[in-house]
Known about the structure:
Number of strands: 2
Order of helices and strands: HHEHHEHH
Amino acid sequence: xxxxEPWHTLLPESVQQLIQVIGWADTVRLIQHFGGIxxxxxxxxxxxxLAALDALSELMGEDTTKKLADFYGGAPLYxxxxxxxMRRARDKAINDKNDATPFxxxxxxxx
Length: 111
């Protein structure tokens, strides 16, 4: 189970679709870099389209960019920010890192 799975219901349908297309890790990276932005997703049929895909592939990698272009090519792709789900996942990671279990096992209780 990945860290964000408990909050999948907080993710917009478009993000759940992105996860199916490019996988979880690449979707998170896309959101972190482009959240709140509409990306033109060219098909790569023109010089300008190829240049745009090349620029995206520098950040996302060629394989991921190809998957995005194949699925969304020719249509704009809005990348939601997913603030609530990202905050919940961040908070869980912090809580896991600072787990209070050793204190509870030793009889020390934080109040």
